[in-house]
Amino acid sequence: MSPRVLRWLIFSILFSLLPLGLDYLMVLARTGTGPSPGFAEIIGRGELCLLAVALSAVGAGEIQGAKLKGEQTGIFLGGASLANIVVGIALYVMMKSSEMPLTLHMTISGVVFVSTLIVATSCIAASEVAND
Questions:
Q1: Percent of the chain at pLDDT above 90?
Q2: Average model confidence (pLDDT) for the chain?
Q3: Are 20 and 47 in contact (CB under 8 A)?
């Protein structure tokens, strides 16, 4: 794994998830000896969708100016990033006004976030290869 991709994973991905982890710890501390909340109560409100939108935008920006070896690669990664952005925004808005169970929100958010991780990391890696 290249140093640039590793920096991307550590500083962009892990640090973007840090507030959600701290939020979970704060909720655990507030509940004390009562029933502990599920992780769905923390990430089931669409926050992962917002993170997915931001990370997808960064990935799309990275390949925008890169001279990729294949034009199809840029089109595919750019299209996938745009799709993640649109889906992430739509799902976030929908989750704010939906009465669906939090566990379903968490599952959908997780799928969008994992898709974003794959596409955005591919964008970072492709832009690095193009710049070499």
A1: 28
A2: 85
A3: yes
Task: Spell out a b/e string for 94-126, using b for 16 or more CB atoms within 10 Å of the CB, else e.
Answer: ebeeeeeebeebbebbeebbebbbebbbbbbbb
pTM metric for this prediction: 0.84
Give the separation between CA 66 and CA 74, rounded to whole angstroms.
9
44 close to 109: Cβ distance less than 8 angstroms: yes
43: CB partners within 8 A, 6+ apart: 20, 106, 109, 110
The span from the first CA to the last CA of the chain, in angstroms, equals 15
Rg, the chain, Cα only: 17
Question: Which phi-psi region, left, alpha or beta, contains residue 59 (left: φ > 0; alpha: ψ -120 to 50)?
Answer: alpha
Q: Phi, psi at residue 74, to the nearest 5°?
A: -65, -40
